Amino acid sequence: MHPVLPSLLLGIAFPWLVACEAEAPPKATAEAVPNAYLERLQEAEAVKHTIEQRNLEQQRIDALIGRGQAAPPGR
């Protein structure tokens, strides 16, 4: 690699990196949004799990009492 190339790349990239840091939102604001999103996602997963458990329990009960089976012939 040419010896001038790394310093040239640094000269181009450094101002861009500084500009990106200057435009970054405050840390507290950046964390508030993902936390709210994460909380909603966790709530949705918990509800999904509850519904799946309820459906499995209902299937087990239906199997125990014979609900959902075909009626015997002749009835």
Give a verbal description of the structure.
This protein has helices spanning 4-23, 27-65. With 75 residues, the chain is an all-alpha fold. The chain is elongated. The model has no long low-confidence stretch (mean pLDDT 76).
Question: Largest beta sheet, briefly?
Answer: none
Q: Could you estimate the helical fraction of the residues in percent?
A: over 70%
Shape: elongated
List the secondary-structure elements in sequence, H or E: HH
Mean pLDDT: 76
Strand percentage lies at under 5%
**Distance N to C terminus:** 89 Å
Kindly state the number of beta strands.
0
Low-pLDDT sequence parts? none
Question: How many helices does DSSP assign?
Answer: 2
Query: By helix and strand content, what is the structural category?
Result: mainly alpha
Determine Rg (CA atoms, Å). 30 Å
Give the SSE map:
Blueprint: H1 4-23, H2 27-65
